[in-house]
Amino acid sequence: MSEGQAGDEGEWLALCQLDDIVPKTAKHFDTGAGGIGVFRFEDGRLFAIEDRCPHAYALLTFGLMDAAKESVMCPLHGWRISLTDGEVKFPAESCMGVRTYEVRVRDGQVEMRAEPKTKPAENMPEGLAG
Ligand code: FES
To answer: For residue 128, which of 7, 21, 33, 96 sits 20 to 30 Å off, Cα-Cα?
Structure first.
């Protein structure tokens, strides 16, 4: 990973070339923002989320991607995590979740914004957010 690039839009981290992520798969990156999973669908949609299941910390990049629901099913116990807002959609919506990040492609390179787009702590009841 190359160093972050600051700009008007905040800091973006370069992750890889788009071709490095095969469509319908996900790839894990160790970044300054922690372990990040980038999910690429066949139609070009890309999502970047914290690559750690909120249940027992499995890598979500080993999970089963669902293009219609824009989610990933955890490989360990089947929790379904939204790729758009990081919330747990199955078994029940809860205050748990993962951070999500904006992701873009520039000159064939996949980049993610260093600051999270959504944080699960924002949904937590007062006193529980860490
Ligand atoms: S570790 Fe993900 S559902 Fe249990």
So the answer is: 33
* Atom number in ligand 1 closest to CA 56: 1
pLDDT, tens digit (0-9, with 9 covering 90-100), for 31-59: 988 999 999 999 999 999 999 999 999 99
Tokens of 26: 């996900």
Superfamily of domain 12-122: Rieske [2Fe-2S] iron-sulphur domain (2.102.10.10)
Write the single-letter amino acid at 87.
E
Both structure tokens of 122: 């924002």
- Top mutation candidate among 61, 73, 79 for ligand 1, by most atoms within 8 Å of CB: 79
